[in-house]
TrEMBL record:
Membrane-crossing segments per the record: none
Domain annotation Fumarylacetoacetase-like C-terminal: ranges: 103-315
Species of origin: Pseudomonas monteilii
A GO term for molecular function: catalytic activity
Highest taxon, organism lineage: Bacteria
Protein name, entry field: Fumarylacetoacetase-like C-terminal domain-containing protein
InterPro entries: Fumarylacetoacetase-like_C, Fumarylacetoacetase_C_sf
UniProt similarity note: Belongs to the hydratase/decarboxylase family.
SUPFAM superfamilies the UniProt entry points to: FAH
Amino acid sequence: MKLGRFVVEGLDGPVQRICMVLPEQNRVIDLRAAEALRLQAKGATREAALRYASTVFPESMSAAIALGQQFLDTAAEAAEKNGADASLAMDGLKWGAACDPSVVRDGLTFTKHIRQFHERMNVTPQPALLEIPGYFKGSPWTVIGHDAEVPWPARGQRIDYELEIGWVIGSRANNITPDTALAHLFGVTIFNDFSARDLQANEFAIGMGPTKSKDFAYGIGPWITTIDEFSDLNAIKMSVRVNGETWGEGDSSEMLWTPEELIAYVSIGDHIQPGDVIGSGTMGDGSALELGRSLNPGDVVELDVGGVGVLRNRIGQRPEESWWPERRDPFM
């Protein structure tokens, strides 16, 4: 099953609607509308049907996933009974981010990318990369969806994409182990960890992890494919195109740390929540940095992940100069 969110304009502003996505038919099913119609056919009033349907299919994908199997069962039944009457053509839809995670987490697991990234950044890989599946935490407030424009970061000059798989968490977990981690995995999406490489180099020197080099945009979408549709998480085809030209191709086979190990490690002493998205780390040749290239305003980036689809975003224009900290000299 493929599940996403599209945006409609309401009286109080934009509203997110959860939908079942049928790419091969070029349509989506508005699940809230389909469920309301199903309930009305069984005798519910329109008002009561909408109240119930809005609970099962709220604006938040994370809240819907938290309902567990009831969410998927109701989606399947509503689509089967009234999907035809609640369908919309995909053409012209405004997409929201496929998920609204409580926190962004992004790993570093692809061996080829690790090697090439460190070579380009002129730094030596740390032995700790072989000891733990490292990851960083980012802002959930800058998550964007399919076809959204990527805001150019303040003071950034060298902008990059990063082709990653997004592991979508299905149930709350704490201190789990790899052998049980897959039971907590809801599905797979595409994760674009946009980066400002010039800012990133400066932040690396501080040693506290990335901030402004990352927290201007995280692409998540175009939708989520539920985990039952994948037979092998280590054989997912991946590619990236910029302005229609293929810049990188590969698959998920070269992960140093498995999805199960990454998810389990994140849960140690912490709590993963339904709808959280954990980035797999960038595929080898999955960033412009590895090719000695970078992005320009107006460039269109398309990340293609087998079994999911294509996440497309356009790079925005450079902003006007804004406030930025001035260098301090403690010995003045």
